Structure formats: C-alpha cells, structure tokens
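Teaching assistant here, posting this on the class forum so everyone can see the example we discussed in section. The complex has two components, and the goal was to see what a joint structure prediction looks like when all of them are supplied at once.
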Amino acid sequence: MDTTLFVIQLLNGVQLGILLFLVASGLTLVFGILDFVNLAHGAVYMLGAFICASLTFLTGSFVLAVILALPIVALAGFLLERFIARPLYERDHLEHVLGTFGAILVIDTLAHLIWGPAGIAIPLPPYLDGQIEIWSGIVVPTFRLTIIAAGLAAAAGLYWLVNFTRLGMLIRAGASNRTMVSALGVDIKTLFSLVFALGAVLAGLAGMLIAPITEASLGMGNNIIITAFVVIIVGGIGSMKGAFYAALFIGLIDTLGRAFLDDIFKLFMSSAAAENSAPALSSMLIYILMALILSMRPQGLFPPKLR
Amino acid sequence: MNPKNTVAKSLLLLAVLVVPLMLNLFGFAFYLDLATRLSILAIAAVGLNLILGYGGMVSFGHAAYLGIGAYAVGIPAHHWLYGGMDMIASTNGFLQIALALFASALFAFLTGLVCLKVKGVYFIMITMAFAQMLYYLLVSISEYGGDDGLVIDTRSEFPLISLDDPVQMFLVSVLSLFLIMWGVRRIARSQFGMVLEGIKGNEARMISLGYNTFRYKLAAYVISGVICGFAGALLGNFTTFISPEMIDWARSGELMFMVILGGVATTMGPLLGAITFIVVEEVLSTITVYWHLPFGLMLIGIVLFVRGGLSSLLERGQKTDD
C-alpha cells in the first residue's frame, strides 16, 4: 500500500469527519438544549449546497457565495424553528419526527422545483482548485485542506461560543435545566431560535463546503443525516465533545474501510472473494461499529453530564 | 364495542374485498392493482402497529423488512434463472416465503438485541440507521443490480394459485391482510399483548411486577418484522421488481404515517391509514408530479393542528414515557 494513497485517504477521512461534525453538532445542540429531534437538519445541509451554487454563479465567486449563503441558511433554520419546531416542543418525539419528515418532503420538493432534478457542480476559484505538496512527494488537493481548515475553524468558533460567551453560558444552562433558565428571566424563545439558526448555519456550511467536490444534489441531505445520527449515537446524544470525536472516528473508519478493506481481505482470502465481500462489509462497517459500541455502552462514548 | 361500529367495520372490510373486484369486472383493472398495493402496504402497517401502537416502540426502519421480503423472492428467482447459489435457487413460493420470514426474523432479532436496549429518540435513530445499513448493503451488491435493482422474471409459484393473474394476486393479498389483522388482534388481546401495553404505559412497573420486559419487546419486534417481511414478499411478487429504493427511509416514514393517521393500537387503524395514504397519493400525484409538496404540507398540518396532537391517539389513558 503506497504512502501517498494512504495519506490522501486519511485526509479524505478527516474531511468527512469534519463535515459530519458540522452536521452532527447542530443536531446534538438542538437535541441537547431543545429536546427536539430534527430530521430536517439534512435538508438544511442540502439547501446550503444549492444556495451556494446559485450564488456562486450569480456573484462569480465561491468564497463570496459562502459568505452570502450563511445568513440565508440561518434564516431557513429560523423559519423551521418558528413554524414547525416551536409548536412541537411540548409534544413527544414521535411528532417531532413526523413533523420534520413533512418538512423534508416540502423542502426536497421545493429544491427539485427550483434547481431541477440534476445535480449542480460548483466551480472553484483557481487558488482553491490546485494541488499542494504537504510532504516530500505527497500531493493533495488544496480544497480538501481548505475544507478541513474551515471545518476546524468552525468547530473552534463553536467551542469558544459555547464555553466562553454569555450566549454559550445560556446555551449550556438551557441544556442542563430549561425551566430554571426561563424562570431566571432569560428569553428562552429567542435563545431557542438562535440555537436552531446556529445549527442550521453549521449544517449549511457543511453542505457548501462539500458541494464543489460532490455537486449540490437532491437527496444529499438524506444521506448524511443518518450518518450524523450514527455519530451522535456513538458520541452520546447531546454531547458536543462526543460528536467531535465520534465524527472523526466514523469519518475515518468509513473512508479507510471503503478504500482499503479489499486489500486487507486479500491477505487472507482469494482476491475474487475479497472483491466481492469487501464493498458489502465496508458499506456496513460504521453501523456494525455503532451496534457494537451501543451494546457495550448504551449511553454512547461521551455521554453529556446529567441534566 | 357498540354494534353500529361493528357493522361499519364489517362493511369496510367487505368493500375492500368486493369493490376492486367489481371495478375490475367493469374493466377498471387499474383499481384492482391499486387495491392490491393497498392491501400489501396495509399488511406492513399492521405489522408496524404491533410494536408502534401496542408496544410504543417507534421504529423508523420498517421498510427494511419490505425490502428483505422482496429480495427473498427476487434472489432465489434470479439464481434459478442464471445459476449459482443452488441452495436457494428456486421459484417455489413456499421456499421463498419461508426464506422471507426467516430472514426478517433474523434481521429483527439481531437488530432488536441492540436497539431495544435503548428508548425514545435513540430507538428512532437506531432503527433508521439499521435500515440504512441494509440499504447500503444492497446498493453494494452488484450481482443483484446494486442501485438499479433487479427485475423478478418469475413470480413465486404455488400449487393451484397463479400470482400472474391480477385477480388471484389481489385475493391472496387481501385475504392475507384480513388473516393478519385478525392474528394481530388476537395477539393484542392475549396476555402477551396486555404485557406489551403495560410496558408501553410504564416499563419500570412491569419490571417490578417481575416481567422480563426485554424479552417481550424482542418477541413483539420479531413478530412485527416477520409480518412486514411477508408483506415484502407479496410486494416483490406484485411489482416484479426489487431495488434498494424499497428500503429508503421515506418508505419507512410513509408506513409510520399510515399507522399513526389511522389510529395506533387499533385493529382497523392501519387499514384506514393505508387507504388514506393510497387515496392521497393517487389524487395528489394525478394533479402534480411534485405531489410530495402538498403531501408534506398535509403531514405538517396534521401533526401541528390535529386536536390534542397525534399523541391523543397514541396514548390511551396512559402517558407514555421515553
């Protein structure tokens, strides 16, 4: 197995992990604080990608498009909260799931109507589109590194926001005891809206970052949301730290599994058998891991402290 | 139960059986097919209702069993025609159905061991994840068509019955539906069903009473999976096409919609829900190909504005915990 390929796959794994974290952190934030299950979170990820695509063609600049698209997805998150989530907070999870499932159908169909059935590729500016030598002889695409850097920056920003600002303090307080926070005179409704919009920004950003590689496409959100569920289940629902480590772990396992499982299998079985069984197993790998982790630690790897 | 209600229910069942046959007789074969599909989906909804309605376990992955059942028909038929896998290569309906039931039971048992350890929102997400796992598995197997799916060349073969005949296909589906509705009703009213409802109401209390609640839940989960697997085997025979798309989580969501809309933990609920779903789908999709838009809005509207929320239907006197 050659080093370049391995390093590239490793980077791909980290990149997937970072994107998963951006999606999962919003989910876990909303769940931890609002006790709300938002299936439509993946739809916001998709919206981010499509809006960014349109704005890239409109403005001619991908970077500018991302900057302009972020407030738009925040608004989408805000509307989602105001009209669908807020009336459902007091109901049970089953209704959260059904309501947001309806929202997905609506958003997906609207996206289909607006952007058409085919995917949209986003052109990158030349300074992001090249390749860069990170080590002697190991060349990787610049944009992959950009994704990782942007994702890590967003993660760091989130860490700072949650741990070192007044808003973050309210968010943490809200997560441990909602009723108490509102009893102390905090405008809990506005806080909830903000949290929801923040989650939407993170998911939307993830969609914008991946779109130049995979295209903005219908159904992209529905694919990532379930993987994001696996991430927050493995990490412990409501735990930001858990989401971060689990996202990287899942991202790496999934990518490396798909890339190298057949090579590993070839060590101890015929190459035909390896080529047949490796794709099947690697597609199930993260779910099997989830099952194993759950059967040993039903609360996840890093469960949040008791609320 | 008041006698008026019983009459209404009997009339509904009779209508489900007779109306499609009459319409077919007058040359509207389309409605017979629609009724066949309705019956099959209703069977799956009845299966889901056993755990969602009576047991309070909200599975968002039950389309997986529809897929398992359909592939259990398609895979043996595929090998029968193209060779390989001699053990299962067959068009014998009994063998295929047995395979469908066994595979569903196995999948339900294995995933149930994991997901029944957790509750509430964890349960919803994990059932979803396991269905998605199966989805990706089927996509990755190129021999069975991968993403594109596979045409089933030969339907299941039974002595005396030919599923190639639409009328017989309909009769098999609708009579299976009635039988399974009756069976689940019996289960729900048995001691087993009472324990299940007890667990839904308050699991801790049932544990204190000495019940091994995990076993009861697992048994119900497996039975529910097997019923949906059977529906899947019928679905494969009906559509003569299998693809990972059958397991898509939107399909699981639609099954949930049927159960909840129709009224959980009732005998007729899943059938009513399936009828509503099929009618809505049929009417909306003739108006626009983008029928998911009004359907989604309708779903949101129902969740938001049905008086007391849908949980008023879900909870019969007792507040569920999760």
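For the discussion questions: Residues 103 and 180 of chain A are 31 Å apart (CA to CA). DSSP finds twelve helices and two strands in chain A. Think about how each of these relates to the inputs above.
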